[in-house]
Amino acid sequence: MSCYFIARRSSPVRFCSINSVEGENFYPGTDISLKEAWRRRVELRKSKLQREEQVLLYSKVYYAPEWNFYKGFAGEDTEHVYPLARNFITPEKWEYYNKVVWPPNYVNPETGLPILRQVYHCRESFHYSPKRMWLACQFVWRMNVDEAILQLRFRQNKGCNILKDVLEEAKQRAHNEFHVEYPSDMHVAEAFPLQCHIVKGIRRHAREQYYPIRYRYIHLFVRLEEGDGPGFKGREPKKNGWDKMDEHFRILRNRKIKYSI
């Protein structure tokens, strides 16, 4: 009988702070350098043609509790499913990821790296603009959680203050509920807002003119992941001058003379 552990509990492998040897960081629980580990993870994000993509079928090795996705927001069974609950992420779906159970020391076959512990946290339905909150989320994306909280304290606006409180709640939850030994070594893997509903009001102007006001309410989703971030923002790291030069030389060397012998 195979043994499983709950992802939010302490695992047999001690995922402690990132080890450093001669200034080089290593991926938690392995002897693989952090740069090489993120290079493998970035390779999965690169777009590929369908004919060149290798389809790998794996058996289900994790456990997740049964959950009826066709329930309404109040929990009752309804025939009509709200499109937002079916097609987009919701706080219920986000919290559901915390209940996934993986085998001990499970290694992702696509990258050859162990699955790190993650904490999913959400603050529901508060009044703020989703566009302004998106700017604050992009500011702390892939940043160390302690550094993100410190930087948000210097930006005195409502969105940064809310995001700072949510990150502190997620960090505290990682230590108390999920038993992460070093929550300060986690980084902000994801942070994004989603608009949940709009409350419309009305404003009276001169000469009997009335115009609607839209009070937007949003959900704020945060995911903390153990270890350091990749050190760059975006799908791929930006190329420096040396990388561009190597690519240019590669293009020059691959030139061919058309209709040559």
Automatic annotation (TrEMBL):
List, in alphabetical order, the GO biological process terms annotated in this UniProt record.
translation
Read off the InterPro entries from this record. Ribosomal_uL22 (IPR001063), Ribosomal_uL22_bac/org-type (IPR047867), Ribosomal_uL22_sf (IPR036394)
Family, per entry: Belongs to the universal ribosomal protein uL22 family.
Protein keywords: Ribonucleoprotein, Ribosomal protein
Per the record, the domain of life is: Eukaryota
Instruction: Report the protein name in the record.
Output: Large ribosomal subunit protein uL22m
GO molecular function terms noted in the UniProt entry: structural constituent of ribosome
* Recorded GO CC terms: mitochondrial large ribosomal subunit
- What Pfam families does the entry give? Ribosomal_L22
